[in-house]
Amino acid sequence: MKKYLVFVALLILSIILIGCNQKKVVPIYKINQEVKFRDATKGSITLNDQSIKSNESVAFSFTLTLNEIFMFDDLFPNYSISVDQTEIELRTFNDGSNLINHKDDYIVIINNVPVEINQLSNYEFVVGESIILFSFGNNYISNKDSVASLTFLFDQVIPDAVFSF
Fold first, then answer.
1. For the stretch 5-40, what's the b/e string if a residue is b when 16 or more beta carbons lie within 10 angstroms of its beta carbon?
2. What is the SS3 assignment for 51?
């Protein structure tokens, strides 16, 4: 009986350890796939078909559908771009309170108005629909056939997600 209990305990422990060692899979979304916020009643984000990719630039265009007011930092505290498996961090929390913009050579356009990178923290999204465009020049692109992805992680509003085309 004692051997049986030890066996069962070891079996349960191994199952727990295997579960803890599995990496969390971040879902990949394509154009026109809506991603509901963690609290679906607050809104959603969709990579729309105005997203473009060429030898000169890549632009990720998102439609935000918001049911309450959000600051930019609430929605996009951490993000990075990947082109052909090369990831470039763009914005992260430094110590849990300070946001760092690692690059300042990309453009953020919200509802057709460019917003300076250092002014993003103060930008307020109103209730309704907004279009936000992240535009990157050719220094982020290796060729026209590259797979480009914009990744949002560790956000309290938008679930961890990769948007790719």
1. eeeeeeeeeeeeeeeeeeeeeeeebeeeeebebeee
2. coil
Condensed to tens digits (0 to 9), the pLDDT of residues 59-102 reads 999 999 999 999 999 899 889 998 777 788 999 876 666 788 89
Three-state DSSP class for 149? strand
Q: Tell me how far apart the alpha carbons of residues 159 and 71 are, in angstroms, rounded to a whole number.
A: 16
Q: Give me the amino acid identity at 43.
A: G
Select the more confidently predicted residue: 137 or 7.
Answer: 137
Q: Is the pTM of this model over 0.90?
A: no
Q: In terms of Cα–Cα distance, which of 72, 108, 79 is closest to 93?
A: 79
For residues 53 and 163, is the Cβ–Cβ distance under 8 A?
no
Rounded distance, CA 10 to CA 45, Å?
44
